[in-house]
Write a structure and sequence with these properties.
The structure holds two protein chains of two kinds.
Chain A lengths: L8 H13 L12 H5 L10 H10 L2 H5 L3 H4 L5 H5 L6 H15 L6 H17 L4 H12 L6 H9 L13 H8 L9
Chain B lengths: L1 E4 L10 H13 L3 E4 L8 H7 L1 H18 L3 E3 L2 H16 L15 E3 H5 L2 H10 L8 E5 L8 H4 L9 H8 L3 E2 L18 H17 L4 E4 L2 H9 L12 E3 H10 L4 H6 L6 E2 L10 E2 L4
Parallel strand pairs in B: 1-2, 1-3, 3-4, 5-6, 5-7, 7-8
Antiparallel strand pairs in B: 9-10
Helix pairs in contact in B: 1-11, 2-3, 3-4
The chains are: A mainly alpha, B alpha/beta.
Chain lengths: 187, 288
């Protein structure tokens, strides 16, 4: 999109380049609304999926990164699968979340972002997701100590929570990935 | 038939019974499984949603391990399947970008239902099943990640899949016709936003009940855990147990449904073992 009063080129170039690099053509959107119609979580979003796509084309980065929509998206990929213009909206959401994280934007849905972080911490530490450790870490850090207490007890009683982690032998390779392998090229 | 096996983290934790029934069914059907050595987490949703590099590199390590064996890789978890497929496609485009000298493996990444609903396996099921689940009206629930995005999963009928129905039909159960088969249950949000999960799960269970289903069956461990756990606030007579397809196949193949297997369900899920009668039928126990 050419620079214009609604699309200041200096603020969106990097975002648009990033999206182009990931194969997301936000300019192909004609706002049919099919993405929003199929989104199972749309009623909880602050901006709808079709708004996310159009705002991305404007390069309205601040508004996007501070939205709750990017964190409430469950990555079900219904929007992208149905888009008549083949815009990979699921990847768009991934790019926006990653950018928000890298830029240190306070997530509009703190607990969702925290859950993802705890999940990745668990992998970083063990090489595999260790559910009990992940749940405990999330509970302590979110302050949500009592939520799902009954469910947790029930799952434990049914033998569904394994108390010990299953660390892998190749943890060093995993640590390398978490240390930023590939990031030196700022992809 | 010999396949590599990637269980994934859920199958070593909350879904350990899924792991058990998948292995047992494969043994019954003459499929040999070789677990990938020292496999790691695929990163699930959290990695690709927040860090692209990890979202590719974590599953890639497993693909490279699989390449050493060269066998097709069987994946029972829908999320792992989708992440392994996504990484495979991404790395094929530019191996050097991902620090792999050459990447062009010939093995396939196979989701469990694709394997077990294949004509050959359905024929084996017909031959080897000793019991029938006739009369069990069941809602086949696929969720998202074995199907979407079709560019990743290569699913042909991603809006109207029928692999679960094909398997259920083969063991005599009655798949119902209903609407929410591929709707998301919001598993990735269930801890942080249980309210959203409860709403989506309530819609799914309600739709299945309206179609006359007495139970759901799935092939995704996240769906199984989330759909059972987020309907516990519903009145008991409105709850539906969520079976793994493999546990029902095992019951039909052997006529047994072990007490330990019943115990892991959060919603009462009792297939009537006593009803594995002489006539070879398996029914569901009446609720007290």
């Amino acid at each position: 999109m050419e620079a214009s009063p609604i699309s200041p080129a200096h603020s969106n170039e990097k975002l648009l380049a990033k999206l182009a690099d990931r194969g997301v053509d936000v300019h192909a959107c004609y706002q049919c609304g099919r993405c929003s119609a199929g989104c199972p979580i749309t009623e909880f979003f602050d901006i709808t999926t079709m708004e996310v796509v159009r705002l991305a084309a404007y390069g309205a980065e601040e508004q996007l990164l501070s939205s709750s929509a990017i964190w409430l998206c469950a990555a079900c990929e219904t929007c992208a699968s149905r888009c008549p213009n083949d815009i990979d909206i699921a990847v768009l959401m991934d790019v926006l979340r990653e950018l928000a994280r890298r830029k240190g934007v306070v997530p509009a849905e703190k607990r969702v972002a925290l859950f993802h972080r705890c999940f990745l911490q668990s992998i970083k530490h063990w090489g595999r997701a260790y559910e009990v450790g992940l749940i405990a870490g999330y509970k302590v850090r979110s302050g949500d100590l009592l939520g799902d207490m009954k469910l947790g007890m029930k799952m434990f009683a049914r033998g569904r929570l394994k108390l010990t982690p299953h660390p892998i032998a190749g943890k060093a390779e995993i640590k390398k990935m978490f240390a930023g392998q590939g990031k030196e090229y700022e992809r | 038939m010999k396949l590599s096996y990637y269980p994934g983290c859920s199958l070593r934790g909350t879904a350990h019974d899924y792991d058990g029934s998948v292995k047992a069914v494969c043994a019954e059907l003459g499929i040999e499984l070789v677990e990938l050595a020292d496999w790691n987490c695929c990163g699930a949703s959290s990695a690709h949603m927040t860090e692209h590099e990890l979202g590719v590199r974590l599953p890639l390590r497993n693909l490279l391990i699989a390449g050493e064996l060269g066998l097709d890789v069987l994946v029972p978890c829908a999320a792992c399947f989708q992440r392994l497929k996504a990484a495979d496609k991404e790395v094929r485009k530019a191996p050097k970008f991902w620090d792999v000298a050459g990447y062009d493996p010939t093995f396939k990444i196979v989701h469990i239902s694709t394997l077990l609903s294949s004509p050959d396996m359905i024929r084996r099921l017909h031959e080897r099943a000793t019991h029938s689940l006739s009369g069990l009206r069941i809602g086949c629930y696929y969720g998202c990640l074995s199907l979407r995005h079709p560019k990743i999963t290569d699913a042909v009928h991603f809006e109207q899949p029928d692999s679960l129905e094909t398997m259920m039909d083969a063991i005599g159960a009655e798949p119902v016709r209903w609407s929410h088969r591929t709707e998301c249950c919001s598993g990735s949000l269930t801890m942080a936003r249980p309210d959203i999960a409860a709403r989506l799960v309530g819609d799914i269970v309600g739709a299945a009940r309206r179609a006359g289903a007495e139970a759901l069956v799935t092939d995704c461990p996240m769906c199984q855990a989330n759909v059972e756990s987020r309907q516990l606030e519903l009145p008991e007579d409105e709850q539906l147990p969520v079976y793994y397809a493999s546990e029902l196949l095992y019951a039909a193949l052997t006529g047994t449904y072990r007490a330990e297997q019943q115990r892991v369900h959060l919603v009462s899920a009792t297939i009537d073992v006593q009803a594995c009668r002489e006539d070879g039928r398996i029914g569901r126990e009446e609720r007290p």
